[in-house]
Amino acid sequence: YKRQYQRRVRGGYSMADVDRHGIGEIMNRALDYLSPQRDLPLHLSFDIDSLDPNVAPSTGTKVRGGLTYREACHVCEVVADSGQMVSMDMVEVNPTIGNQGDVKETASVAVTLVRSAMGQEIV
User: Mean pLDDT of all residues in the chain?
Assistant: First the structure.
């Protein structure tokens, strides 16, 4: 049994960091930490409740002031542009929360973000 090499961004980044430095700089720092030579495979685990609930309302842990739609797209675009993504999961989409419109909006955003992470231009 051989363990996969894993690195995680220690401590992560807060929304205050995103406000202060911008999502582009935060993504550059994260990728520089995870793969300084930009040559290691990446797994993107995207938690939909990191987005503001106005963008993705059908999730269990709603926190006002989360990522905007555009910031979330940028995260996925940067990962796609790196050419390093080998796998992805999209978590916390909960179709039992909210009305039919909320569920459709959240599912649509989730699908769009996955497509963006796979290299499709969205915005």
Answer: 90
